[in-house]
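Hi Y.,

Following your request, here is the sequence exactly as I used it, all 345 residues.
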Amino acid sequence: MAIEQLPDGRWKVDVEPIKGRRFRKTLRTKAEALRFEASCRAKLIDNCDWSPRPKDMRKLSELVQLWYDLHGHSLRYSGGRLRKLLYLAKHLRDPIAIRLDAHAYAEGRRLRLEAGISAKTLNNELGYLRSVYNELRGLGVIDYANPLELVKPLRLQERELSWLTNEQIAELLESIRSGCDNPHVEIVVLICLATGARWSEAEKLKPSSVRNRVITFSGTKSGKVRSVPISADLETKLVKHWREHGQPNSAITAFRRALSRTTIKLPKGQAAHALRHTFASHFIQNGGNIVTLQRILGHSSLAMTMRYAHLAPDHLLDALRLGPLGSFDTLSTVEVSESKKPRNS
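Below is the corresponding structure, written out as tokens. Let me know if you'd prefer a different format.
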């Protein structure tokens, strides 16, 4: 019973309003005991924290869909992100979301890395999954911590950025003009080389985006609009191309074929992007300002643009001037010192 009288005349209350919350108290009168019991039971109604919560048994794929419905649909690449997240949920065997194990996730990531999946791709996937948990927790859909919160991204090995010399640019354009079956390839290449645009940005360019020798790029990767001046000659070529051939279509395959007919060798995955690197590299080598380059390329942070800083003429001259062998006298001293060493008999 919840209330019983003890031999000494006092009243004992033993009440358990919900499983796991039990209260015992001894009081002098039955009325006090009844009030205490009623108070304990009332808390079950007034305070939701007292109420037992059902276990969250939703699977990861269900959370992914909720994330998309509440937030993900507003992102630029919402459809692709949803497909990627559903693929990840399936690859992880669609566990109960709250039970996603960080150790098991890291082990699976290691196996995929050994299978040839790039570290950059795996880091992106980790970021996508984290965002699902963080966003839903912020919206109150889940009330538990992100199970991947302490999983660290893989350390990336920075790749050398490939860019074309003037001779290679001439060779590439000659290959395009002499044997390319897609009329749009040359104009897209010229836009990329003249403005540092991404291939997709140059392909989507419309006649209304070119005015007074300025190209305005919209719908960019960063979501920001940026404008870059061009020469009068390139503007004339653009107007003529649109008049004769219309809007550029997908020309990347034809570009790769033209590139394969040259002696130019580029790292895997840097074919079209090498044109953007070429613009940036030549810009810096010719004395361009790094902050100006950031605005032209549309980088969200200066850290990304700093990858090209080592190509600046001042940087190269400082390496020669300030190094330990920066002067002829120092070099001569080293040579003399070497000549005075005793020879082994």
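Residues 330-337 have pLDDT under 50 and may be disordered.

Thanks again,
Q.
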